[in-house]
Design brief:
Blueprint (H helix, E strand, L loop, with lengths): L1 E10 L5 E9 L12 H16 L1 H5 L3 E6 L1 H5 L11 E5 L7 H13 L2 E7 L6 H6 L2 E5 L5 H13 L3 E5 L4 H9 L4 E3 L7 E6 L5 H11 L6 H9 L2 H11 L12 H8 L1 H15 L7 H18 L7 H10 L2 H5 L3 H5 L6 H7 L7 H12 L2 H10 L7 H23 L1
Parallel strand pairs: 2-3, 3-4, 4-5, 5-6, 6-7, 7-8
Antiparallel strand pairs: 1-2, 1-9
Helix pairs in contact: 1-12, 8-9, 8-12, 9-11, 10-11, 13-14, 13-20, 18-19
Length: 409
Amino acid sequence: MDIYIARQPIFDNKYNVIAYELLYRDGDGNFFNGNVSDNVATSILLVNSYFNFGINNLVGESKVFINFDSHLIKSDIAELLNKDKVVIEILETVEPDKKLLRKIKRLNELGYTLAIDDYTTDYKYNEITKSCDIVKVDFMENTKGGIESLVKQLKKSGKLILAEKVETKEEFEWAKSIGFDYYQGFYFSRPSLQKGKALSESALQYVRVMNELNTPEPSFRILSDIIGLDLSLTYKLLKLVNSNGRLLNEITSIQQAIAILGVNELTRWLSLAMVQDMCKQETSEAVKCAMIRSNLLKEIAIHSDLKEYVEELSLLGTLSIVDTVLETNMDEALKPIPISKEMKKTLLGQQTIYSDAMALCFAYERGVFDDIRKSASNINYNIKLLSSHYLASVKWADKMFEELKNDFY
């Protein structure tokens, strides 16, 4: 499935790009679909930015402005984002209540940069304005006199001010002359459309994960088993762990990734992902192949010299077709996920401790029996077990798909 994001640069007085605003798009037309609510649009934008494109691929080292409505601010989703990377842009339609103001205060205390969007002379929520570091003044909805008045007022209170919807050089030069700090608009650049591929999803898997997360004591083992059935969830989980600079160690298993992330954070992100994918269930032979490989490699590990690497080999099987699903090369697909160097080398075809097990799996799929015997011998795996282990893995994958299909429809 194709996915879309638009980005529009934000400049300083010297035409240097200091940030990008990311904008929700749902097609090649590069315009906002007004039938989509702000909440859903930002949820999909966040999922695509972090899970599918990768935030650094979109904006490099620059900061990124992302719109937040009241619901998303109250949900604590913002706290999952890197405070040094993301500017929380509060929509002008947000009406403050006690809970929202508490959440905004907490974001201030945590060190997040807050901006307010489409600011006009008749904006009436001073509590929000006071909490924001950056004010985006709308050049289309304010008069020149109104803009000059806002600049004087905002400068006195120490705000950084951004001229928004600047459409001509004259407007830019005038904005500079009266004290604006940053600029954004069609004069500089129209939003550029970025297009990519989304991983296919299983809506029921989200339900199963959420059900387990909502139990009094969620089991990391059960969560790992559910997530391990789905390449998309596995890949997104690994990218999520790596998204906020929290990683201290390389990941070798799904359970480890869940433990690092924590139940609360996993729940928040899954809520976002469900907004995007709840109504779709797409399966493919490629994903089924990943499931078969994952189970087969687990069995090979258990019955060979690689018993201590069961989790790693199972994860390698799941990730072995991610390049095919994303329609990119394996090196690009692996960049955003924090698995070990040895695991990445394995998936890139280099020799590692896991290579013989992987080679055994692939050789059996292709029917290359000389390679099967060599790889099995290298890890002391009884080749007579391979046929039954493979058939059991196929039956298991088929059974899982059938259960998903029957439960969903």
